[in-house]
From TrEMBL:
It holds the Pfam family Bac_luciferase. InterPro entries: Bact_Lucif_Oxidored (IPR050766), Luciferase-like_dom (IPR011251), Luciferase-like_sf (IPR036661). Residues 1-314 form the Luciferase-like domain. This is LLM class flavin-dependent oxidoreductase. It comes from the Bacteria.
């Protein structure tokens, strides 16, 4: 099991300024690198406190790449539906060069109706735009004089400039919310996988991972080469009661702001997003204690979190990279740094190969 750091900003301006959050993200990334974390990643969202402080992962990751040397930088995820593929492939190739080949690219479909409305994109086209965008980016990274004829974009002949630093282009991840079918398709295509266990049941995560691994194996991809990232919010302290109290407070903030962002589903439906009309009700029913007992968050003292990760490994296997969030913007920097250092010094070593 390996470890990464992820940033999903979920806060309002009365808690922290944007510039302060970005400074903290860069500083925490440098600390994560000191401790040998595998990656740092961030999201793409627009216009609301739920993720909206990260409208362009490439910008923040470029700043992080310029201040680090070894840690990988990952999009978790960029949204092909919201960009022309030539623009998206170009700026990702630029980041790959700035980081000297440390880029991993996670692609996602997006799921908030208002983002599609604001950007003038039909939400019913999201899956097709997603698939087309990945195909176009991969071709632009690996081919010259590309002529692309898609449903939504046609261009060329064009040779991308700059070319990616990584000769075969950045590794591609697919961010999947809850669908075993999309996980199976990602495995068949030879893509890596990003999952957020917080938003689905452990049983669903097992189904998703099983479908992904079967798709990978059935397609004949190299055994052991698949990379799987699981993303968790992490609340850690020497004082268990403090960690649980703060964890519940921050999770409730997350749920409130997510519920507000998801209210677009009360006015919208799409056969591309079955069940999303129930998201607001599900969020309002959120229970911190149940999420903790289900293993959907990491919280407590170091012994607690070690036990939680042991359970994660038993349920899902240990060929995983656990990506922890320690600063959603709702926390102050000292608390985030303490959590990160405690995790790196007292939790992560228990799961690294040398510790087995």
């Amino acid at each position: 099991m390996d470890f990464g750091l992820n940033f999903f900003p979920v806060f309002t301006p009365d808690h922290k300024s944007a510039s302060q959050f970005y400074r903290e993200a860069i500083a925490l990334s440098q600390i994560a690198e000191e401790y040998g974390f595998e990656h740092v990643q961030t999201v793409e969202h627009y216009g609301t406190p739920y993720g909206g402080y990260s409208p362009d992962p490439v910008t923040l990751l470029s700043a992080i790449a310029a201040r680090t040397k070894t840690i990988r930088v990952a999009t978790g995820a960029v949204i092909p539906a919201f960009s022309h593929p030539l623009q998206l492939a170009s700026k990702l190739a630029m980041l790959d060069n700035i980081s000297e080949g440390r880029l991993d690219v996670g692609f996602g479909r997006a799921w908030l109706p208002q983002e599609f409305e604001w950007l003038g994109v039909s939400i019913d086209e999201s899956r097709r735009r997603f698939s087309e965008g990945i195909e176009a980016c991969r071709r632009l990274w690996t081919e010259e004089n590309v002529v692309f004829e898609g449903e939504f974009h046609s261009f060329g002949p064009v040779t991308l400039s700059p070319r990616p630093y990584q000769q075969s282009g950045p590794p591609v991840f697919v961010a999947s919310a809850s669908s075993p079918e999309s996980c199976a398709a990602a495995g068949q295509a030879g893509y890596h996988l990003q999952i957020v266990p917080t938003i689905v049941s452990p049983e669903t995560v097992v189904e998703m991972l099983t479908a992904y691994r079967k798709g990978w194996a059935d397609a004949g991809h190299r055994a052991g080469a698949a990379r799987i990232q699981l993303k968790y919010n992490c609340y850690l302290s020497d004082d268990r009661d403090e960690a649980l109290r703060r964890g519940e407070e921050m999770e409730n903030n997350h749920v409130v702001l997510m519920s507000q962002a998801a209210e677009g589903w009360l006015r919208k439906s799409s056969d591309q997003y079955k069940g999303y009309d129930k998201l607001v009700d599900k969020a309002r029913e959120y229970d911190f204690g149940k999420a903790l007992s289900d293993g959907r968050i990491l919280a407590g003292n170091t012994d607690d979190v070690v036990r939680q990760l042991d359970a994660t490994r038993e349920k899902y296997s240990d060929d995983l990279c656990v990506s922890i969030q320690v600063n959603s913007g709702y926390t102050d920097f000292r608390e985030s740094e303490r959590t990160l250092r405690l995790f790196a010094e007292q939790v992560a070593p228990r799961f690294r190969p040398a510790a087995r």
